[in-house]
C-alpha cells in the first residue's frame, strides 16, 4: 500500500507537494530512510526500518513520523506522529527544494509515564524485537544503548535531504536498488547498490558509529572476477585469502604503474570448467559474466570458510558469480578509515554477500522489495551528485 497511491488532484497544487519521495534524515552517523507519500486524505512521512536482526530476508518495517492534511492547501495542518499518544501539533519547514525540516511542538507527547527506562524498553522491543537481557554480547549492549541515547534526543525534530534511487541499465549485473544487510553487532542496515561503469558501489543509507550513513561501505571491481575453489578447499580460509590477496597485489602493481585494469585480461584465478571470464566494454562489465553464469546451470556450491562469522547462517549455499572488492572499515567515530580486500558474492537477483577478509566476517544482503514513487533521479549526473553530497556530510 505504502508509496503506491495515485496522488489526487489537490496534491498537484499543495504547498507540500515537493516533499513527496525519498529522504535521508540527518541523525548523526545513523541516518535513515523516509518515504513521503500521498495516503488517502493525507501526505504521510513513513520511516522505513530494517527487519529485526538477523532476519535479513524479512520485509521492512515502517512507522509514521508526520502527516499533513491534504485538503488544506494554504495553511495545512501538520501533525507529529512520533511517540505513543497519537497525533499532535507539529511543523514542517521547506528549507530548499531538496531539503526540509520537521519540528514537534508538543514533545511531552513523546514521554512515557515510566520515564526513560520505559521509553528505552519500548524502543528496544520495536528496534530489536527483544529485551536487553536477551542480548548477551556486552559490546552489542553498549552500541544499542548509545544509539537510543543519541537518536531519542532529536524528538522528531529533524532535517531531511532528498535521495534518489539509482538509475538502472540493461547491462547491469543485477537491478540496482536498496538492500538490507547484516553488520555484526550493529545489526541490520540499509545499503544502496549502484553501478558505475566497471564498478559497483554500496552506499549506506543507514549507518553506525564506525561507518556512518552516506559512506561507501563496499566497492566491487566487475572486471576482476574471482573463481572460488571447490567447497572442500573453500572451507580453508587461508586458501581463499591467498586468492584474494593475489588479486589485491595485482591491483596495487597496476596502480603503481599508473595503469587501469585491462578490459580483456585473464583473471587471477582461471575457471577450471572453461575459458577465463572476460569483461566486455561494449556489452557492459557485468552483462557477459552474468550471461556466462546463466548458461552454466545452477552456479556453484558456496560455503563460508571456517572461522568466518556471520550474523545469519541462513545464507544461500549456491552462488552465481564472485568478484574482487574492497570494504570500508574504521574505528569508533569513523577514525582511521581504510579500504580492505574482500569478495563480493552474487547469489541471485535479490541477494548478494560480501566477505570481509580482514574482519573474517560475512555480510548478507537482501533486496528491499517495497515500491517507491517520486524517487527516480532526474539524470545520472543528479544521482552522482546526490551520492557525493550525502558522503560529504560524514567525511
TrEMBL record:
Pathway given in the UniProt record: Protein modification; protein ubiquitination
GO biological process, one term: protein ubiquitination
Bias kind Basic and acidic residues: ranges: 262-273
Superkingdom, taxonomy of origin: Eukaryota
Pfam families named in the record: Cyclin_D1_bind
Alphabetic keyword roster: Ubl conjugation pathway
Listed InterPro entries: FBXO31/39 (IPR045048)
Region named Disordered: 252-309
PANTHER family in the record: F-BOX FAMILY PROTEIN, F-BOX ONLY PROTEIN 31
Record-given protein name: F-box protein 31
Species the sequence originates in: Rattus norvegicus (Rat)
Encoding gene (name): Fbxo31
Amino acid at each position: 500500500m505504502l508509496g503506491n497511491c495515485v496522488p489526487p488532484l489537490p496534491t498537484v497544487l499543495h504547498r507540500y507537494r515537493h516533499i513527496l519521495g525519498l529522504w535521508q534524515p540527518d541523525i548523526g552517523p545513523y541516518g535513515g530512510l523516509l518515504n513521503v507519500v500521498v495516503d488517502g486524505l493525507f501526505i504521510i512521512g513513513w520511516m522505513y526500518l530494517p527487519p529485526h536482526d538477523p532476519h535479513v530476508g524479512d520485509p521492512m518495517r515502517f512507522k509514521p513520523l508526520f502527516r499533513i492534511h491534504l485538503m488544506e492547501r494554504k495553511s495545512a495542518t501538520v501533525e507529529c506522529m512520533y511517540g505513543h499518544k497519537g497525533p499532535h501539533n507539529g511543523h514542517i519547514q521547506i528549507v530548499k527544494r531538496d531539503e526540509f525540516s520537521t519540528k514537534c511542538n508538543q514533545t511531552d507527547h513523546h514521554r512515557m509515564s515510566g520515564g526513560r527506562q520505559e521509553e528505552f524498553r519500548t524502543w528496544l522491543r520495536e528496534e530489536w524485537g527483544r529485551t536487553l537481557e536477551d542480548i548477551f554480547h556486552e559490546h552489542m549492549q553498549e552500541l544499542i544503548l548509545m544509539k537510543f541515547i543519541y537518536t531519542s534526543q532529536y524528538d522528531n525534530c529533524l532535517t531531511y535531504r532528498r535521495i534518489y534511487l539509482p538509475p538502472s541499465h540493461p547491462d547491469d549485473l543485477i537491478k540496482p536498488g536498496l538492500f538490507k544487510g547484516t553488520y555484526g553487532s550493529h545489526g541490520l542496515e540499509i545499503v544502496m547498490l549502484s553501478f558505475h561503469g566497471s564498478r559497483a558501489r554500496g552506499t549506506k543509507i543507514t549507518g553506525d558509529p564506525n561507518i556512518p550513513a552516506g559512506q561507501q561501505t563496499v566497492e566491487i571491481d566487475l572486471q576482476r572476477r574471482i573463481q572460488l575453489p571447490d567447497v572442500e578447499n573453500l572451507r580453508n580460509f587461508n586458501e581463499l585469502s591467498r586468492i584474494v590477496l593475489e588479486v589485491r597485489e595485482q591491483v596495487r602493481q597496476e596502480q603503481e604503474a599508473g595503469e587501469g585494469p585491462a578490459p580483456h585480461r585473464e583473471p587471477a584465478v582461471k575457471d577450471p570448467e572453461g575459458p577465463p571470464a572476460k569483461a566486455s566494454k561494449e556489452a557492459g562489465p557485468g552483462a557477459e559474466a552474468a550471461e556466462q553464469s546463466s548458461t552454466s546451470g545452477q552456479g556453484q556450491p558456496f560455503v563460508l570458510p571456517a572461522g568466518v562469522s556471520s550474523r545469519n547462517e541462513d545464507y544461500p549455499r549456491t552462488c552465481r558469480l564472485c568478484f574482487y572488492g574492497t570494504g570500508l572499515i574504521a574505528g569508533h567515530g569513523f577514525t582511521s578509515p581504510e579500504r580492505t580486500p574482500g569478495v563480493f558474492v552474487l547469489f541471485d537477483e535479490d541477494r548478494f554477500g560480501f566477505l570481509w577478509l580482514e574482519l573474517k566476517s560475512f555480510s548478507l544482503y537482501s533486496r528491499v522489495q517495497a515500491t517507491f514513487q517520486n524517487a527516480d533521479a532526474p539524470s545520472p549526473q543528479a544521482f552522482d551528485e546526490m551520492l557525493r553530497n550525502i558522503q560529504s556530510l560524514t567525511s
